[in-house]
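Subgroup meeting minutes
Present: P.N., E.W., G.H.
Scribe: E.W.

1. P.N. recapped why we're keeping a running log of single-chain structure predictions: easier to compare across weeks, and new members can see raw inputs and outputs side by side.
2. G.H. added today's entry (315 aa).
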Amino acid sequence: MSVTVVGSINIDTVAVTDVYPERGQTIFGKKIEYFPGGKGANQATAVARLGKPVNMIGAVGQDLYGDKLIHSLQDSKVDTHFIKRSETFATGTAIITIDQTAENTMLVLKGANDDLRINDIESAFNQIDASDVLLVQMEVPQETVIRSMEMAKEKGMYVVLDPAPAEGITVKALDYADIITPNQQETYHMLGVDVTDIDSALEAAEIFEGMGVSNSIIKMGAHGSVVYQKGNWEYIEPISVKAVDSVGAGDAFAGALACAISDGYDTFSAARFATVVGALKVTKLGAQVGIPTIDEVNAFCRERGLTKHQLKKTV
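Output recorded in log:
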């Protein structure tokens, strides 16, 4: 079986600096890099690098960046057959600044991502038969996301909703999600709950359950996460690493989660595995190129003494 990802594909322009400039201020940065990115493409890459077949449904422009991004996905063994080449828009772009703490600010220009339409989804899903998990985010049009979730449910697929970015969230997506994985900002945007600790994370999870989503992972950044599954819950501690770049950590987490769920693991085991993969991502620069392979995950687990029963079986 495989994972299908519906989402954005971007070129990331990454500027590294010691401190962010204040409004109206000019400062000198340290370096600039150009990386493949986009939440959907990042998540599909994570699934592929962890050894799982994955279909990518998205859109790029008919330009050099579009060519580069498709080749990058293919190099990671992502199936790019369902990627649209837009005749109207240029490839999406993210302008990212990373400071010395590895935190980031991001300006996203959607470009071709806005040209992924319902008919593109229907055409792709009518050709996909062996996929058991759908992974979606909110960087493509809302109606496109909703239609992909509807068709996934019709096919009996398990739907993972990563409700990011907060600006793109639609509550209607909760009607079709089997699990939701918001961070603190997204939780506040959706529910008005300020997640600061385990108790407030549980409050949010219970509200999501009341809204029809009985499985959730409330991510609290450096403070770990709370995994909630139909009334049962578990707190997962963060994994300490030397942070270089936090861009794409949530995408690595989401891809690993979908991969583990497709392998048949319960929410708690899948979330523990995803936590390892997300932690490893922040040790490298680049939202997509920094995503670890399954061999790197295995090596990290051996170094940290993480046992197989703590994670999914491929570790």
